[in-house]
């Protein structure tokens, strides 16, 4: 049985702009979705029209009892052309933030959730040192315009994702000349299309044209991330943090990481240490001045003498191909607290499944792990389930179903699931709303 959470605990759900808003046509992902021979199974198009229906979606969350909403501001909307800031888009996000406050929902804003302005990629993207200055400028603009409405900022979503994608793409490259394509095994916590053998070269050529870049440069961009790129990402974070602290010191600043529960069998200890260092520990020097850490977890990896052990026919899998293992979250929190004693927000945790009873079970077991960790003294201050809505899962398109709310994309009608009712009922019973606490 779940116990009561502390009154101040933040509980809710999360989204990312490109995955839900629709018509993000100045972004790099929109370009990648629409070129000939695209690796994307389908384009995002109108997505689930959250851009126009955010009030309906936030209200569904709030009426269910949710008191927190994590969402991203889309850089490609704010600065669609280099140096040009679109005030209408700034006002759109002002309206989103104000609507959250009006309904006693604490907004947690992510400044960069994977998607970037198309022009940024043409300028060299996240492998160019200039990007640090561009991100700094964008951050300053957001904070000056909207900072008074923002209590929490995640600068960059899953800053370690480049390494995780690089690992799986290296394995995929090794398969290119084999007789079969590698299928998803859940070894990276984002939607990647593995059916790439026949498309890859032509895809790079088309992207080179679209971004006005040499195809070899595009290859570097799509194979994130070099050591230089790793440094640039963390420089962007640190510069953004400095600007936020200088401009709006009331805002709590953090970053999010994709973290697995790494478990070891005899002989797998060195493999675990290596992955834990690459996933998290190597970033510690750059985040020491942060106010909180965003932890994102979906599953575990089991390591043996030869590295990660593949799942077998007896393993319970999610629709994404991850092992169904909600207890991973609590284990990750226990690992993190050994190296990080400041507040932790679980900024993503969830499951893709067509059986919503599995989602209810997942949430209950994951939250039990969170409560156990809090009882042990781990400073967890929030949990935002991924995702509020069934949405666009990057290269995999719309086939994945993480959401607490289903959407008929022909009519954009919302259908709240039992899991939203479960999460919301639990929140209402343990968290008393108090509008006077919002400032």
User: How far from one another are the termini?
Assistant: 34 Å
Largest sheet: 8 strands, parallel, barrel
Number of strands: 13
Question: Which radius of gyration do the C-alpha atoms yield?
Answer: 21 Å
- For the largest beta sheet, what order do the strands appear in spatially? 1-2-3-4-5-7-10-11
The residue ranges in which pLDDT falls below 50 over 5 or more consecutive positions are 179-185, 428-439
User: What is the CATH class name of the domain at 10-261 and 390-437?
Assistant: Alpha Beta
Query: What class do helices, strands and sheet pairing give?
Result: alpha/beta
The CATH superfamily of the domain at 10-261 and 390-437 bears the name: Glycosidases
Shape: globular
Mean pLDDT: 91
Helix percentage range: 40-55%
By oligomeric state, this entry counts as single chain
N-to-C order of helices and strands = EHHHEHHEHHEHHHHEEHHEEEHEHEEEH
Beta-strand percentage range: 5-15%
Family: Belongs to the glycosyl hydrolase 1 family.
Protein name: Family 1 glycosylhydrolase
InterPro entries: GH, Glyco_hydro_1
Keywords: Glycosidase, Hydrolase
